[in-house]
């Protein structure tokens, strides 16, 4: 019995569209997994190093990111800002950020001080926290910026006690008129100030990205096989006629 293949343009174009999207998204997820593998490798190397004393003459960011640092200075208490939509253990909350003027310099550095829960009845009613006065010494890990989230609508202007979705050190420097270093520090330690410091690891999600990549590549393969199989079936029925 002869077996024929019936080619039709509309199913072909639809199939190629699905295949292209599946391959593109699979490759993107693969790249994300490789990026996070690179981050994890750098973090493991830099976590083994002793904390670096941070001053105004900082190393290039490429050498500093994910490095643990120690810095002395005074918090600029009237310039706290809050990153919205940062859940922790199933609870809605914020990351509290505040600049620290580095002792003996004219520079400051933005510090992610920790997580605080959100008031479920009034989003803008912020929990009480303690900010130490005078010169303090903190430790933490250098990050280029806080983890970014998808921004809906227009961002609120940066001002003291603003609640925003994302923040860049350069934007904060422009708004506050402080001479900021071009990165932030995720503070570590267990100071009694009402803040939780259990930061998500930047390399988190490698296996998830690989799983998504497999699903997208699988979708592309399934769409192509479906086009081929149904084409032969149509061709066989046409031959029988």
- How would you sum up the major sheet? 5 strands, mixed, barrel
State the helix count.
Answer: 4
- Helix content, binned percent: 25-40%
Strand content: 15-25%
**Envelope shape:** elongated
- Give the C-alpha Rg: 26 Å
Strand order across the biggest sheet?
Answer: 2-4-5-8-6
Instruction: Tell me the distance between the termini.
Output: 12 Å
Low-confidence stretches: none
Summarize it:
Helices cover 36% and strands 21% of the residues. With 241 residues, it is of the alpha/beta class.
Description:
- The chain is α/β, with parallel strands linked by helices and 241 residues long.
- The protein has 2 domains: 59 residues; 138 residues, no CATH class.
- 36% of the residues lie in helices and 21% in strands.
- The protein has 4 helices and 8 strands; from the N terminus they run αβαββββββαβα.
- Strand 4 and strand 5 form a beta hairpin.
- The longest helix is centred in the first third of the chain and has 39 residues.
- It is elongated.
- The two termini are 12 Å apart.
- The relative contact order is 0.22.
- The model has no long low-confidence stretch (mean pLDDT 86).
Give the helix/strand layout.
Blueprint: H1 9-47, E1 52-53, H2 61-64, E2 68-75, E3 81-83, E4 93-102, E5 108-117, E6 136-143, E7 163-164, H3 169-176, E8 180-187, H4 206-240
Parallel strand pairs: 1-2, 3-7, 5-8
Antiparallel strand pairs: 2-4, 2-6, 3-4, 4-5, 6-8
Keywords:
about 240 residues; alpha/beta; 5-stranded mixed beta barrel; 4 helices; about 35% helix
């Amino acid at each position: 019995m002869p077996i024929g293949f019936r080619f039709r343009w509309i199913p072909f174009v639809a199939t190629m569209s699905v295949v292209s999207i599946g391959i593109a998204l699979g490759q993107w997820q693969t790249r994300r997994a490789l990026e996070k593998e690179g981050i994890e490798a750098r973090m493991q190397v830099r976590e083994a190093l002793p904390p670096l004393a941070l001053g105004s003459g900082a190393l290039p960011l490429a050498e500093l990111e994910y490095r643990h640092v120690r810095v002395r200075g005074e918090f600029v208490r009237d310039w706290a800002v809050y990153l919205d939509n940062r859940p922790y253990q199933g609870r809605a909350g914020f990351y509290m950020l505040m600049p620290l003027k580095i002792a003996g310099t004219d520079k400051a550095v933005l510090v992610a001080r920790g997580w605080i829960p959100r008031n479920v009845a009034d989003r803008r009613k912020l929990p009480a926290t303690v900010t130490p006065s005078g010169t303090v010494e903190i430790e933490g890990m250098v990050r280029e910026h806080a983890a970014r989230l998808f921004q809906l609508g227009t961002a609120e202007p940066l001002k003291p006690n603003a609640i925003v979705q994302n923040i860049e050190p350069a934007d904060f420097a422009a708004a506050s008129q402080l001479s900021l270093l071009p990165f932030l520090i995720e503070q570590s330690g267990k100071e009694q100030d009402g803040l939780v410091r259990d930061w998500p690891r930047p390399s988190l999600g490698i296996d998830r990205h690989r799983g998504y990549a497999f699903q997208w590549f699988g979708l592309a393969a399934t769409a192509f096989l479906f086009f081929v199989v149904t084409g032969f079936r149509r061709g066989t029925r046409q031959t029988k006629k």
